[in-house]
Design a protein that fits this description.
Helix content: 40-55%
Number of helices: 27
Number of strands: 25
Number of domains: 3
Oligomer: single chain
Shape: globular
CATH architecture of the largest domain: Alpha-Beta Complex
Low-confidence stretches: 1-7, 36-43, 60-83, 733-740
Strand content: 15-25%
CATH topology of the largest domain: Spore Coat Polysaccharide Biosynthesis Protein SpsA, Chain A
Amino acid sequence: MCRPSRVPQLKRMKEKIRQRLPLSFKLLIKRLLVGSVAAPMRLGARVVRFAERVYLSAIAHGLDPHRVWDVKAAPRPPFVQQYGVADFLLLMNAIAGRKDGLPAPDRPIRTSIILLCYNKIELTFQCLRSLLREVDLSATEIIVVNNASTDETERVLSHLDGYIRIVNIDVNAGCVGGNNEGARHARGKYLVFLNNDTVVLPGWLEPLVETAEGDPSVGAVGSMFIYPDGTLQEAGAIVWQTGEAYHYGWGKSPEDRRFNFAREVDYCTSASLLVRKDLFDRLGGFDPIYAPISYEDVDICFGVRSLGHKVVYQPCSRIIHFEGATVGKDTRFGLKRYQVINRPRFYEKWRDVLEREHYAQDQTDDERAANRGRGPRIIVFDERIPTPDRDAGSARMLFILRTLAAWSRVLFVPMNRPEWPEYERRLWREGIETASVADYPRLLRARKFYAGVVSRPSVAAALMPALRRAGVRVVFDMVDAHCLRLEREHAVTNDPNIAAEAARYRKLETKLARQSDLVWCNSTEDRRAMAEVAPAVRIEVIPTIHELQARGLSFADRAHLLFIGNLAHRPNSDGVLHFLREVLPLVRQRLPEVALDIVGDNPSAEIVAYSSAHVRVHGYVPDVEPFWQSRRVFVAPLRYGAGVKGKVGEALAHGLPCVTTSIGAEGMGLEHDESAMIADTPQAFAAAIVELYTNNELWQRLADKGYAHLAAHFAPETVAPVINDSIKELTREHSSISAP
């Protein structure tokens, strides 16, 4: 049964309204958006920055962030000094109610966290408390290097022997020697160096590891550093030609989008730094010339790069850093003075690299130096942040962004405010920068973009003039031909309003295509429709892309029918209702035990009204894999539409045979009775379902051939070169551009 609580009613209503808005109103909204949103968004940003400072300060001081507005919950300064050893042990006992402990000696270790400490047990306490809340000890070891502490550190740590590995050093070896000693004891594939004057925030470790796991060329990954007051300490670091290190983003908001996308950087501070152990060992660890401290982390990052690997800043890994709590802040005294002493040593070692690759010091233009990526800049506009688990268009856009980001510096600008922030964070994690639509005029002035992609007609109409004025080559990504889809809808519904809307879209899409340097569309049918009205424009087909998935259960172990699709999209909701009214009753006459699962965002009240034991309306489901793996037949009963249908491709990618219409199969090159069953009348559609549902041999043939067909024509490695080559051709006159 449908559970409306999964999809908030307001979001559902907004989506339905958006789907029904006439083109003229959509264009008005877009033009208002790109022209008048800056002032209110600046005011809202101030409120957000204040709230995030309070939130982060609460976490740093051990408070429940949801109670942070309660005055009675505020800590009495100095907070960290109020914990004694007994408090420490009691709290560690409480969170050590976890049943795991140190991994067995023979178990493979993925990550070794090396925590160096010298006295200040209260800081080590805070750090370990946050670590033990965060870390999965089945694949991770925590190595605490006690650097000859003279306080109660050794005694306190001995009580935690079942959860951490303790390395006691008799003579203080400094930061360089202590971390090298910890690395010598480490068993993990990845070393994560962590200062004890830090508190790791939820989700800290996994982004570091995933960044390295996902790209073998990445040799080191660093975190975002946040001060206890909620301001930014470092979002990756810059090394100027003089060898002077500079914390990018210092004092700014950690929620500023400029600091929230993964990117290649000069170095990251070793207060939270992952390094591949094999590279660390090849480099001989931290260089002893920097003993006892300072510039050893800058040096190791330069060394990693000298071995052909990248150093990446990953903002989705965050820590609170009590900077200076262990070594002070004044460079004239104590250990901090080694920052001045060691810079000339570093400069002499890396002089050639600094002069060849690094910028002269210019803090007014630090944004340029903060990103070592040297590819061309491409700006991409779309209606919203891609939500690939909710609609096929989003999956296609996400693939386009990933493909471009592999060789260029991509900036993605959604026209609408993100409703689900986790999707924007996904882009950041993968190194795709985002910006508010209020910022796009400033960005067009400040940066030189070689190409701009404008996706969907209303977005393109609002933004194409500004891109042209800025001298940007324009790619009009029409997705599918909206005019074609609406003309087909009119043929089914005979609604004069839809006919008028189709005519408006045909006029607009024709105009936009003629004004563009390149057009992207979803299918060969869309290309044919546009080529008739804009014959001089180059048009490339960029279909929805599908990665092959596990094929699931066998024919005998599967049961029931399945539809998955965004039900706010009119072709989908119309097709499902048509199926429920005209086709399913015919199927159940032959197969009375068969049920239909309807999965997808925004089911209408009409669809939900059909809910029964044999019609299960699920709404949005975060993980649809169990459906793909266990249902026997996928149905795509579309009566109108345009472009390649993502739902059909996704079924084939899972090895699930599909029954669809000619419209549903359009642009995919599918053959009836070979790679899919194709039928256009209720009687023929029902008969095709029954035959496929009951015929093991037919089912297996369609599953195999559909899977192979998708691999040959719609897999990432097939489509990515079309995207890259079309942009490369578009910008051929710019000699600095090269694409794979």
